[in-house]
């Protein structure tokens, strides 16, 4: 799929997304442990970091999760002061490095969920 192909977001058609070389990738997030001053309860919380979508992803949503490259894992996971966070890593992943394809509506669990749906023929249909 390319970014110029229109998608009707109201149809709720599921898509699978991967890197073009099919390697695993990681999302960037933050977490913290803090104490609720009212109850005294220690709470662990997290959030996913999102960015502007690239052309592949903007067909689905107006933002996309941050993808952290393996070479940057140590920097992303380092325990640093907030003023030293690696903000240069918070950027949109290049569209040419990603792919997306239509999949069937979720039905159970397993690798079959990633099977591409067959493409319907385009152009005029004829009976003969």
From TrEMBL:
Key words of the record: Covalent protein-DNA linkage, DNA damage, DNA-binding, Hydrolase, Lyase, Protease
GO MF entries: lyase activity; peptidase activity; single-stranded DNA binding
GO biological process assignments: protein-DNA covalent cross-linking repair; proteolysis
SUPFAM superfamilies: BB1717-like
Protein origin, superkingdom: Bacteria
Pfam families to which the protein is assigned, alphabetical: SRAP
Family annotation (InterPro entries): SRAP (IPR003738), SRAP-like (IPR036590)
Gene3D superfamilies hit by this protein: SOS response associated peptidase-like
Enzyme Commission (EC) number: 3.4.-.-
Keyword Glycosyltransferase: no
Protein family: Belongs to the SOS response-associated peptidase family.
Protein name: Abasic site processing protein
């Amino acid at each position: 799929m390319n970014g110029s192909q229109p998608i009707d977001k109201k149809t709720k058609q599921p898509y699978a997304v991967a890197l073009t070389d099919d390697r695993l990738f990681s999302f960037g997030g933050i977490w913290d442990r803090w104490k609720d001053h009212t109850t005294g309860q220690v709470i662990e919380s997290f959030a996913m970091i999102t960015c502007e979508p690239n052309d592949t992803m903007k067909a689905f949503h107006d933002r996309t999760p941050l993808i952290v490259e393996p070479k940057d894992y140590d920097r992303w996971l380092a325990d640093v002061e907030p003023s030293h966070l690696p903000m240069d890593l918070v950027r949109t992943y290049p569209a040419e490095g990603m792919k997306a394809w239509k999949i069937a509506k979720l039905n159970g669990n397993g690798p079959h969920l990633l099977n591409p749906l067959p493409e319907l023929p385009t152009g005029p249909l004829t009976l003969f």
